[in-house]
Sequence to fold (295 residues):
Amino acid sequence: MSAAPQSSTGDLRTRAEALGQTLPPLLAEAEMLASTVMMGEHGRRRAGLGDEFWQYRPAHAGDSARMIDWRRSARSDAHFVREREWQAAQSVTIWVDPAKSMSFTGDRSRAPKADRAKLLGLALAVLLLRGGERVGLAGLAAPRAGRAQLLRLAARLSGEEAGEDYGAPVTEGMVSHGRGVFLSDFLGDLSGIEAGLARAADRGVKGVLIQVLDPAEEDFPFDGRTIFESMGGTLRHETQRAGDLRSRYLARLAERKDRLAVLARAVGWHFTTHHTGAPAQSALLWAYLALEGGR
Fold:
């Protein structure tokens, strides 16, 4: 009875190359971007499942009775939970807006907003997963750890989307007291954004809002006869003097940014705006530090 022949080095290389060709190009780009970000010391002391006492915190809705430290709670009118030093991975849930508005680009030499948002989301997942954390996609993939999860996230983000004209944050799958990331242009109805943040806050989730805009949406370089139409075609406006709208448009955009910043602060989140004409590294580093409590 003879043994089966072992694969040669050449065969293994061929199989590895074939496997690599099946991976989404987005993953390769995200891993390259993540490698450019200098990571600080990971594993700061955080609340989790370790054995060493860390701190007391007020009990939140959803905490079970067995989590309450009744001896500490007896000394006040409130209930307290005894937290321990972080030794287990936290959960981060990322939402990347699939709306049609994200497909806008003001210059064919630039990728659309959706591409940049997906790149930032996946690159952030690379950094977090390398640190041993669990990462998921809101409504699409529950938070998990490991390389297999990264491949799963890349496949999900590389798929075709068919959203509405403008999106609203999805919180499905967010883990109580975990962290969240919302990536969008946030140009839709503010009520949907407010509702998404409120749902996340109700679960004790803290996180970051990253508004991704095309430079044309910031500069409003339009003049003369112009037809403005939403990417889904549901909204349309024609004007003979687009330049006359510039000051009003820029004022409304500034007002929108201010409102988003206020909404984020109200629930303990961080907010920033990123332009697709700018390098992605700065936005990725900002998000990573903000999630880690660096800002």
Q: What stands out?
A: Confidence is low (pLDDT under 50) at residues 1-9, 15-21, 40-51, 85-89. The longest strand covers residues 47-58. The radius of gyration is 23 Å.
